[in-house]
């Protein structure tokens, strides 16, 4: 084959790569990303920056930058680095000094923000250093605060405080409300073949991304398949006794146009000893209410999604990645 033909074939292969946008935060989004990065897809992660606790909260308040914690976890999950270097980035200092509680990865993001003069540029530079697969974008490039209106009408401000009051959440909101989405996020959504949400804290990791003006509208307009990777367990103070359909309904209450068309739920039973441990924390398995999901017009993918290690239930990243990739063979994508 002549050189021109080889180049044309290579360009076709690049063009044929499916584009995935994964939206969320916390510890759930990295599981999806680790599962996807093994496949030949272009990945964009849009990550919440509403955290106000721990190391992220301290850096946010002291340096007036978006909190870097969730961004750090996502960068690590998409990077090609040695295990020891990953451990280094996730290392938290335990000292009597001002470093106490800070992770090295958070400090690196803060330093690169200072060097480049911009949080998004700082994240981009660290992505390059870590050889990240795809692009990692904060949901906003400015400081934002998350608030919640509870079922009794009271208002709680601060992402870390919302679950602590242990009341049913009616809705969450961002301050300020007039945040502009990043142009890169808008482009990624417009070009996407698949958009995923979760798993993770529903009201404090997933939904805040959708409160950025225009972002949810772009998602609704997108022709991509929109998939919610459902939490396996309920979360005290956020989703007490929530079924699978209630997770979907909560998301849709926060957007102008409902858009989720598929949900991936766990089919693997959880061992009794683990159920007892979670019950002590007032957490229980999310029930799959098939009839209600069908009434919402949601396609349900039922798979053994979980693995257990260290006494906790986690999504199996390999299974999640395989389930998401299987959607590309279906007509909707």
What does this structure look like?
The protein is built from 14 helices and 12 strands. With 333 residues, the chain is of the alpha/beta class. The protein has 2 domains: 192 residues, Rossmann fold (3-Layer(aba) Sandwich); 87 residues, no CATH class. Helix 2 packs parallel to helix 4, helix 2 crosses helix 14 and helix 8 packs parallel to helix 10. The longest helix has 14 residues.
Number of strands: 12
**What is the arithmetic mean of pLDDT?**
90
CA-atom Rg in angstroms: 20 Å
CATH architecture of the largest domain: 3-Layer(aba) Sandwich
Terminal CA distance reads: 32 Å
3D shape: globular
Task: Count structural domains.
Answer: 2
CATH class of the largest domain: Alpha Beta
| Helicity range | 40-55%
Task: Look at the helices and sheets and give the structural class.
Answer: alpha/beta
CATH superfamily of the largest domain: CofD-like domains
Beta-strand content bin? 15-25%
């Amino acid at each position: 084959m002549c050189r021109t033909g080889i180049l044309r074939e290579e360009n076709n292969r690049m063009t044929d790569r499916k584009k995935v946008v994964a939206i969320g935060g916390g510890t759930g989004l990295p599981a999806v990303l680790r599962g996807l990065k093994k496949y030949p897809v272009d990945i964009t992660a849009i990550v919440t920056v509403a955290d106000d606790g721990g190391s992220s909260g301290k850096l946010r308040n002291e340096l007036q930058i978006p909190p870097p914690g969730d961004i750090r976890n996502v960068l690590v999950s998409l990077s090609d680095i040695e295990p020891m270097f990953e451990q280094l980035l996730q290392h938290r200092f335990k000292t009597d000094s001002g470093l106490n509680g800070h992770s090295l990865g958070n400090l690196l993001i803060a330093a690169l923000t200072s060097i480049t003069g911009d949080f998004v540029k700082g994240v981009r530079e660290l992505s390059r250093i870590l050889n990240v697969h795809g692009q990692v974008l904060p949901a906003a490039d400015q400081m934002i605060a998350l608030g919640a209106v509870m079922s009794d009408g009271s208002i709680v401000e601060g992402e870390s405080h919302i679950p602590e009051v242990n009341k049913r959440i009616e809705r969450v909101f961002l301050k300020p409300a007039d945040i502009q989405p990043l142009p890169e996020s808008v482009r990624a959504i417009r070009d996407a073949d698949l958009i995923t949400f979760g798993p993770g804290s529903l009201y404090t990791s997933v939904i805040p991304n959708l409160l950025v003006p225009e972002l949810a509208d772009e998602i609704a307009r997108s022709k991509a398949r929109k998939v919610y990777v459902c939490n396996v367990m309920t979360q005290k103070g956020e989703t007490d006794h929530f079924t699978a359909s209630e997770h979907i309904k909560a998301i849709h209450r926060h957007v102008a146009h409902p858009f989720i068309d598929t949900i991936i739920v766990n089919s693997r039973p959880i061992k009794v000893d683990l159920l007892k441990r979670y019950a002590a924390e007032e957490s229980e398995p999310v029930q799959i209410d098939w009839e209600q999901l069908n009434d919402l017009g949601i396609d349900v993918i039922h798979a053994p999604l979980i693995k257990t290690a260290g006494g906790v239930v986690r999504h199996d990243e390999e299974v999640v990645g395989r389930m998401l990739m299987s959607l590309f063979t279906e007509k909707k994508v």
